[in-house]
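Researcher: Let's continue the batch. This sequence belongs to Histone deacetylase-like amidohydrolase, and it's 344 residues. Same format as the previous ones, please.
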Amino acid sequence: MSATNLHTSKGLRKMSSCQRQTHPILPYNQDRTPVTLLYRHPDFLQHDTGRHPENAGRLRAIDERLDQSGLPGRCSTPEWAPATLQELLRVHTPGHLDALDALAHRGGGQVDSDTVVSPASMDVARLAAGAATDAVRRVVAGEDRTVLCIGRPPGHHATADRAMGFCLLNHAAIAAQAAVAEHGLDRVLIIDWDVHHGNGTQELFYGASHIGYFSIHRWPFWPGTGAADETGAGDGLGATRNLPVEMGESRDRFLSYFARELEAFADQIKPQLVVLSAGFDAHRADPVGSLGLETEDFVSLTQTVKDVAAAHAGDRLVSLLEGGYNAPVLAECVAVHLEELLDA
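Model: Same format as before. Here are the structure tokens for Histone deacetylase-like amidohydrolase:
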């Protein structure tokens, strides 16, 4: 199958030659009751990874816990479409998309020892990326202020031309690029608190001055990137900030370090939108990562990110699920994260 057929078989639009559109960043509609947009969909379960740590059971546990909590009743759940080819090509190469589509069409397989593609995986990944771009559109338009996208597979390890670390498409990067290219924003801040450094996101924006990247992560640890002296290059020098944290650091010091450094970095970037790569594998009970955090620590982390969004971005915050591999613990962490997002 040709590259064109691979893309159009997914119902995606061909990339157009139109120039970048700019739209005003509208204030939040104060006449609306404050809610959080909650993106979740049963199709996210169709990315079949078998007994892999990143499996559909993660989202089943989250859905069950959220439904028990009643929190979704306080949210608005929009309808949305998969990401378009144009949106994907702002971040990923045609060859990357073609290779993953071809693998899915052949029935799936292993990209590497960590990363699985099933027949439905690229449809699911496009749906997750589409949730991120739809969320950006809505918050920039002033429909709502905060968003939680509970999708899979995760994304922050995916580079322009490589799937890795359970990730196929980089949803945070796709969201940030949509904010700039489609909605006329000048400055976006991506915050990443997953226990693993988001090497893909950093690589994609390492030379960019308009999209800042801030990561706190376990060090030394896989994937081996994210040293403190990795601060960007060229025009992007200073627009990347890494906080490597060794195992054994106290929770209080972790939280205060995160808050202090993030606030200072945000003062420098002055973002108009905050995108959060929200991984919960720094929890002490996570089997893949862990930095000794407890569930309640994600309340403090969420509040810090909300404060930054309030100070600089008119409360505009799009949170995207990344890691977290102890399903019951992940579900509790997502619940407290969503509850804090809802706490106006």
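Researcher: Any comment?
Model: The domain at 32-342 is CATH 3.40.800.20 (Arginase; Chain A).
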